[in-house]
Amino acid sequence: MRYSLKQLAVFDAVAETGSVSQAAERLCLTQSATSMSLSQLEKLLGRQLFERNGKQMMLSHWGKWLRPKAKKLLQDAQQIEMGFHEQHLLSGAVQLHVSQTPAEHLVPDLISLIDTSFPEMRIDVDVKSTKHVIEDVLDYKCDLGIIEGRCDEHRLEQEVWCRDHLTVVASSHHPFANLDRVTLAQLEQAKWVLRELGSGTRKIFDSTIHHLIDDLDVWREYEHVPVIRSLVENGSYLTCLPWLDVEQHIQAGRLASINVPELKMERMLSFVWRRDMVDNPLVDCIKREGLRMMKGKGVL
């Protein structure tokens, strides 16, 4: 075997950052040593692993083929090192990117559960829209994603974690709040504040309502659910949000769920990961403990 783990680590860091200088900084190496290590690896393998566009490094076809295999070797090496240092076999860091609703309502409990059973695991969480979570998983920017709704990307595997539904809500003092039923015509006359395009919530809402209402008056679009909730609670807007995001506010009397019989908006919260990703015991642990948590809550 002619290549080294150091060379693979350099390759992986350059692939992740798109830059030799940034990879060198991450690995605490000089830029010349990083560049030399990458050149040696390409020479040993007899293939160009990157397309070079100035200082920007983009994976070539062979680089994309090598990336998941290199990650597996580096991960195994880390597990071996930790094992001989008498650390728990499930040790190390996992990069988890999560859409907003599960990040706020489910992921904290999941991390607490894992912290109790596997204290040497570290879960680094980044909260993004479903669209950006999917992009990050595809670009190797995270090990595992949790998204809202359906994912049709053929390069990803998807496993349902739990189910939820969307509901139309208004403030408790809105004229619609006391109605037994609200018509589509009434929805068309209302002002709406919605999640931004690209979010899982917005995608489900748009796909459900687009063939029922021709022109919805979308007054504002925001990324953060608390902003939307506050505007609706204190104004005359309608919105559509996951039940998990509004349940407590409805029970407290600050929001009201609006009954629109034509709107059925069931959805899934799912784990997603790259189809070509090799076995990762840390990722498997998160999925396994997540499903166990939901069974404990009686959701599954």
Mean pLDDT: 89
- Tell me the name of the CATH class of the largest domain: Alpha Beta
CATH level-two architecture of the largest domain: 3-Layer(aba) Sandwich
Instruction: Outline the biggest β-sheet.
Output: 7 strands, mixed
Cα gyration radius (Å): 23 Å
Number of helices: 12
Oligomer: single chain
Domain HTH lysR-type: 1-60
InterPro entries: LysR_HTH_N, LysR_subst-bd, WH-like_DNA-bd_sf, WH_DNA-bd_sf
Organism: Vibrio ulleungensis
Family: Belongs to the LysR transcriptional regulatory family.
Characterization of this structure:
Belongs to the LysR transcriptional regulatory family. Keywords: DNA-binding, Transcription, Transcription regulation. Residues 1-60 form the HTH lysR-type domain. This is LysR family transcriptional regulator. With 300 residues, the chain is an alpha/beta fold. It folds into three domains: 5-66, Arc Repressor Mutant, subunit A, CATH 1.10.10; 92-162 and 268-296, D-Maltodextrin-Binding Protein, domain 2, CATH 3.40.190; 164-267, 3-Layer(aba) Sandwich (D-Maltodextrin-Binding Protein, domain 2). It is 46% helix and 24% strand. The protein is built from twelve helices and eleven strands. It has helices at residues 5-17, 20-27, 31-45, 61-84, 100-105, 107-117, 130-138, 184-189, 200-209, 225-234, 243-251, 281-296; strands spanning 50-53, 56-59, 92-98, 121-127, 144-148, 156-171, 191-195, 217-222, 238-242, 255-258, 266-274. Strands 3, 4, 5, 6, 9, 10 and 11 form a seven-stranded mixed beta sheet that branches. A two-stranded antiparallel ribbon has the order 1-2. A two-stranded parallel sheet has the order 7-8. Strand 1 and strand 2 form a beta hairpin. Helix 1 crosses helix 2, helix 1 (5-17) crosses helix 3 (31-45) and helix 1 (5-17) crosses helix 4. The longest helix has 24 residues, at 61-84. The model has no long low-confidence stretch (mean pLDDT 89).
